Amino acid sequence: MKNIAYILFSVLLIFVTSCKDEETNYHTAARPGFTVGEQYEVGETVTFTDATIPNEGTKIVAYLWEFGDADKSTSTEQSPTFVYKKDGVYLVKLTVTDSNGLKVSSQKEITVINPTTPDFILDKQKYMMGDLVTFTNATTTKSGTTIITYLWEFGDEAGTTSDKQNPTFTYTVAGAYAVKLTVTDSYGLTASITKNVTVLDPSQVIAVQWSSPLNGVVKGGSSPALAKDGSAVYMLASMDNGAPATLNAFDVTTGAIKWTFNISGSMQEVDPNAIAKDIFSSPSVGKDGSVYMVARDLQSTTENRKVYVFAVDVNGIKKWCQAVGGNVNLYAITPAIDTEGNIYVANRGKEVFKLTSSGAVTKLTSTDCPDITGGISLAKDGTAYMFGKGNTGLYAYNTSGDRKKWLYNTDLGGASEAFTGALRSASVTVGGDGTLYSVVDISSGAGAVIALTADGSLKWKYETVGGIPDGGVVLGEDGTVYANGGKASGSNGAGVVALNSDGSLKWHYKTESDAQTVPLIDNRGYIHFITADATYYILKPDGTLFSSQKVGDSTTSSPVMDDKGNLYVSVRKDGINVMLCITSEATSYNINSAWPMSGQNPQRTGLQK
Fold first, then answer.
1. Cβ-contact 192, 181 below 8 angstroms
2. Strand order across the beta sheet in which 473-475 lies
3. Which tens digits make up the pLDDT trace of 545-595?
4. How far is Cα 80 from Cα 180, in angstroms, rounded to an integer?
5. Cβ(331)–Cβ(294) below 8 Å
6. What is the pLDDT of residues 527-541, one digit of tens each?
7. Whole-angstrom Cα distance, residue 338 to residue 181?
8. Which of 195, 252, 373, 376 has its CB 3.0 to 4.6 Å from that of 423, i.e. a possible disulfide?
9. How far is CA 252 from each of CA 239, 256, 344, 482, 581, rounded to the nearest angstrom?
């Protein structure tokens, strides 16, 4: 009986419950809803699509849409559209009324964004005090919307503003300035963007990153060269106070010595009596990273006195050493390297040698060449150009045909004011069209910048006050010819001269100290040079001073620059020779120049581009 009663009670409970659910459904209002996107732009038509589901047996008889804007706009359409005129987040509410008079609501948030994106472009990343800064508007907006006003706030102490679309402004004080652009569009909406403008003091631009002692002294115009991979800078040092002549490799990041190669020690493996003392040349670097250099033996004048050519690998290990020539002397001969990796050297015994990268030696038929003291530069056709002692002239030699091409010695002086008297160390620059450029001293005692054709004919000559037996020419990307001005002659010379391609003067920046080393051109077209008193100058392309700083007591080295804008040079400071790494806001040497620095490239190969 209990089981029967329990079953009857359960059936009754189920019946009652079922009747209650059915009644609730019958009297419940519709299930409201609508579809709309999540984000729109100001001025864009927004469509609200009704998705209400009425209860069974009823229908929707009224719609009320509230769009959430400041004007409290509404609509009674089933699926209305609406255009928002301001950006923001809006709560949209739909209230529906069914045929039983029941009301129910649904709401959603939508985001309306300003279609105008303010922006502006600066013509440079950094500026110097006094530079004209150009601000270029780069604001974007949707079709049909226009920008009607601009407000620029330059962030200077005076609170200067401008309403121009693309204004300019000059900052006279160094610092970081927050520049704000506010634009107003045709809907009356405003939008802003702020960017920083960095303004530097040119007098503070030059910075010595590291200074490392050089174990020895620098003679003549010996200058540094860079490793092929840019990781090291190489510099030769002459014997000094018992310390041997060496090739030194410095880490470009820290200035730490990576290794030192003993030149005399290597020479003595060939001849136990050989000694290297004065090194006037510079190293050069081949495609495989090998470092080439040339040194003379200081034995008494005998047949054993030779010139030694070295190849050293990237770890400072000797690859080979070749003794060339007999009973000869040597001056500022930096090995030149051709496209096939052959190395060319010359000596003061009127001898020219060609060596392969493996060290095989060929003596060229060059008995008619002068007493070579400067050079060597190579044209792509295999012609080698090199200067002789005093007024002996500029010698052109066809290395592929093994013969003399010509000798230019018109109106040359005796090079009495050279680093080492009468030993001219000037080098030749080979332009993209084959024109040859160099600096000379002339018979009157003055100096000159000269341009010759490939056959040795004079194209033009620009005379300077002081003689220029040392140094050379670099070429601007636009063809401007820049040369060191040589001897100062008071305040009337030295510095750098800039010449047009026809030899006419563009400008002359003068210095009171001699300018005897080769200038250099950076990625901005700025001209770098260092005077004999170790003052480092940077000039703008128009010849005005960008920056200068005294970085030592004296120097005879030409600077080299890497593809990051770091400049390396050797100076004498506080009684010792040091290697310096200097930055100046340059980001590279000028890779588009036909000849941007001494030796044409950071490896000083002396090869025409």
1. yes
2. 473-475, 481-484, 496-499, 505-509
3. 999 999 999 999 999 999 999 999 999 999 999 999 999 999 999 999 999
4. 40
5. no
6. 999 999 999 999 999
7. 55
8. 373
9. 24, 8, 28, 27, 8
Cα separation, 437 vs 215, in Å, equals: 35
Sequence-distant (6+) residues with CB within 8 A of 13 are: none
Residue 183 Cα to chain centre, angstroms = 35
46, 145 Cβ separation under 8 angstroms: no
Q: What is the C-alpha separation between 322 and 307, in angstroms, rounded?
A: 8
Given a contact cutoff of 8 angstroms between Cβ atoms, the answer to whether 440 and 422 are in contact is no
Q: Is the pLDDT of residue 375 over 90?
A: no
**CA distance linking residue 313 with residue 229, whole number of Å:** 13
Distance in Å from the first CA to the final CA of the chain? 115
Is residue 86 helix, strand or coil? coil
Asked if residue 317 has a cis previous peptide bond (ω within 30° of 0), the answer is no
CB burial string 550-588: b at 16+ within 10 A, e below: ebbeebbbbbbbbeebbbbbbbbbeeebbbbbbebbbee
d(CA 359, CA 311): 8
- CA 291 – CA 250 distance, rounded (Å): 13
Report which of residues 87 and 75 the model is more confident about.
75
11 pLDDT band, cuts 50/70/90, is very low
Residue type, 70: A
Asked if residue 516 lies in contact with residue 502, where contact means CB atoms within 8 angstroms, the answer is: no
Burial class (CB in 10 A: 0-12, 13-18, 19+), 410: middle
Per-residue confidence (pLDDT) for residue 326, from 0 to 100: 75
